[in-house]
Amino acid sequence: MTGDTFDVVTFGETMIRHSVAPGERLETAHETEMRAAGAESNVAVTVSRLGGSAAWLSKLPDSALARHVEASLRTHGVTPVVARSDEGRVGVYYLEPAGEPRGTNVVYDRAGAAIRTATPEDLATDHVESARAFHVSGITPALSETLADTTRTLLDRAVAADTHTVFDLNYRGKLWTHDEARETCEPLLDAVDTFVVAERDASAVLDYDGEASTVAADLAAAHDCETVVVTRGAEGAVAVHDGDVIDQGAFPADTFDPIGTGDAFVGGYLARWLDGASVEEALEYGAATAALKRTVGGDVATVTPEEVDRVVASDTSDITR
Predict the structure, then answer these.
(1) Which has fewest Cβ within 10 Å: 42, 61, 105, 218?
(2) Which pairing describes strands 54-61 and 244-248: parallel, antiparallel, or unpaired?
(3) Based on the structure, what is the number of domains in the chain?
(4) Quick check: helix, strand or coil at residue 138?
(5) Domain containing 232: what range?
(6) What does the H/E/C string look like for 250-291?
(7) pLDDT 10s digits, 273-289
(8) Position 316 in a domain
(9) Which of the residues are catalytic?
(10) Angle between helices 279-293 and 305-314 (to 10 degrees)
């Protein structure tokens, strides 16, 4: 990294995650484990840990919890570039991990978070304009109308500066409806170079149905995206890049904590692609990173390049090119 130029700059909210032990209930638990957690910062951490330089843009109050978030990201080599707010708070979410039939539950407590008022004037947008890639997810514009406008502006400034733009739809049903997400996110796609979307969300939110390769090709054509990646959970991912279809299987993993797997995939993909790899190679690297994340507690992929290389070399995913 030279000066303040980063490989990847992300923008979004990072919360404090409180987790009870597996099998415990929030209503009866006596203690929780505290970690920093946020989709965009998770991607930044993954890029940083895999050899790239990364910054995270956000808005935080001057508080102990805000300092905890910043310190957590610095631990992983990410540079927080934070606007200070005299009002607002750090958002929190509570995780109650469980197996079927109950399933894992997430409880948000993020109303009034300082980031919800973040405008382009608050933020050091020069970092977006000088970065090699700018990443944001659909979680950010879901938080407020102000953030929806700010997300649009940052994407436009990135495009104007020839910064590669990356958008992960990352739909969260506890934040907004399918219709609300479509109305806000679909217009953003014309400013996106690499679009990542779960197969289920491409259908439910964007009304694109069919084979994953067809969905990816149709989205790429509709919005002139350079690359569209459709993720399929345990079935891996399919990408369309410059008209070519790449089918990448998932690597098997024993799941300890699945939260953040998608962010690890995106971060691993970007780290490898920005290092000069092809989309095929980057997809494989992202899939390997995602598999490793499932073995790690917390939201972030605390992994090393050597570990990812070892998973890739295992050749245990189902890949079709």
Answers:
(1) 105
(2) unpaired
(3) 1
(4) coil
(5) 8-320
(6) CCCCCCCCCCCHHHHHHHHHHHHHHCCCCHHHHHHHHHHHHH
(7) 999 999 999 999 999 99
(8) yes
(9) 263
(10) 110
